Each structure stands twice: as C-alpha cells, then as structure tokens.
Amino acid sequence: MIVTTEKLFEAAYGKYAIGAYNINNLEQTMGLFRGCIDSKAPFIIQISKGARSYTHKNMLEALIRAADEIFPEAVFAVHLDHGDEATCMDCIQSGFYSSVMIDASHEDFDKNIEITRRVVEAAHARGIVVEAELGQLGGVEEHVQVSEADAHLTDPETAKEFVERSGCDSLAVAIGTSHGAYKFSGSQALRFDILSEIQKKLPGFPLVMHGSSSVPQEEVERINAAGGQLKGAKGVDATQFRRAAELGVTKINIDTDGRLVWTRVHREFFKEHPENFDLRPPGKEFMAAYAKFIAEKNDYLGSAGELDAVWKLIKG
C-alpha cells in the first residue's frame, strides 16, 4: 500500500528510522519488497532523476505497481530523490508519487526557500508531502557532485526559519555524511551535536539523513577479490542509526550499499562461471542477497517488526 511519508514519520518519530532505498530495475524492486516483508518493516522507495531516465519513468512506476499487487501486506511511500524543480513538478502532476524532494541546497538561503516554497504549494494542493535540504553533503551521487571543500553542515540557527518560511514537511540535514562510497576519507564524522541542536529548534519535526550507506568492508573486499578496484571506501557505522532516530531522524537514505551488493554478486558470479551468458542466474542470486541485506539494514534502523503497528495507524 502506498502512503505518504507523513504517515510513516508519525509512526517512527523518536523510536526508529524508515529506510529509504533507491531502485533502478526489476531485481532491486523485488529484492527490496522481499527484504521488507521478511523483516516486517515499512519502507520508502526512492526514485532518482537518474533512475527515471535510465529506463523510463513509466517502467519504474509499473514495476512498483506490480510489486504492490504481489506484496499486498507491504506499506511504503514512493519518493522522488534529489529532484530539481522541473522534475518535482512532473512527479507531482503524475499523481503517482506520495512524496518529493526538492534539492535547492546549492542555492543561497533565500533562493532555496523560494524554490522550495513553489514546490510545496504545488505538492500540498495534491496531497503530496515535500522534503527539502539545508546544508550540502560532499561526495558524488548521480548528478549531485560536491567537493569536500564545498560541503557545509546545516546551521541549527537557520533550520527553524527555513522550515517555517518554506513550508516543507521534512528536512534533510547535513551532519557529516557524504554521498557515494567514499564517505569518511577525510576529517568527516557524524555530528550528533549539530543534530541535537537542530532537534531542539524543531522539536517533533521529521529530519532526514542522506548519504548513509555503511559501505560494508566485506562487500568491498569481495568486490576487489573478484577484480574490482574500490580502495579506501568507507561508510557510516550502521550502529549509529538508532541514536540518529532518537534525535529526530525519521528517514535514512541508503543507495550505495545496494549498488555494492549488485556489483559483488555479478563480479563473483561471472568470475566463477565465465562460460555463462544468461542474465537470470546472477539476477536471482542478487534478489536473494539484496533481500537479506535489506532485512539486516532494517534491523539496524529499528524499523524491523514495525509493519503491524503502521497498519494499525493507517487503518485508524
């Protein structure tokens, strides 16, 4: 069942975080649904601007609709990840998305508010909720590329003003994470002190943590052993997710880890089976491996086992 992130955040706030997972194809979609059903967790499907152009936006929407029929017990939101204004407006008009993110964090403060406000007004008119971003994460993720020197953390003093003036429903905050597989190659670390101050300024308001893949070292090592060249990749300690949730983080974005699982499965499969030319055997392995990964991640987030409670909230 597709719901708004607002409903999911109402259930989660202060207790656990909802996993927001990016998908690009059938195998990721099936693995994600299976993993969340196995762990009895609500979740958020994220579709990025890049994913919408990788195949076609209608193809991804059809996959999600089909999965919703196959797994009627699932509760999830469909969210546009890192949208510009034009993409947000397209998703709002489509009537399929329950949530959109407008990322105008590269603009100055007032311009960010101006753009976000326009998206909020259009979205709210159709019952869609909006995530915005204040501060900038470093790293690379599709079209988002910010050097560590240009990254800047969210200022708690301006967060309250931003939310009030923009009207956004949740706020992605920069507290030290980075996009991509190389999150902590420099002096970066999670700044729970800043997160705590933001929560004090915005009590009860849903906060979002981007760039939160853990980059499991076992996955990196297995990829490299099968011919990969990922050196120095390091991510967020998943044991810190619960602490972030206690400080108001209700949504945690995880994309890179899923790509690592895909890469590891396919590199190892074709190394071990060089004679193979059928895409289905490694696809099946990936779906099973991704489902297992998702279920484990939901345990760290605290969302595992919460599906029944969310259903009760939705049904009133």
Proportion in helices: 40-55%
Average pLDDT confidence is: 90
What strand line-up does the widest sheet have? 1-2-3-4-5-8-10-11
Helices, by number, come to 13
CATH third-tier fold name: TIM Barrel
- Main sheet? 8 strands, parallel, barrel
Q: What's the level 1 CATH class?
A: Alpha Beta
- Terminal Cα separation, in Å? 15 Å
Shape, per Cα inertia axes: globular
Q: What does this molecule look like?
A:
With 316 residues, this protein is of the alpha/beta class. The chain has a single domain, classed as Aldolase class I (TIM Barrel). It is built from 13 helices and eleven strands. The strands form two sheets. The protein has an eight-stranded parallel beta barrel with strand order 1-2-3-4-5-8-10-11, surrounded by seven helices. A three-stranded mixed β-sheet has the order 7-6-9, with no helix packed on it. The longest helix is centred in the C-terminal third of the chain and has 22 residues, at 280-301. Mean pLDDT is 90; it is low at 143-150 and 180-184.
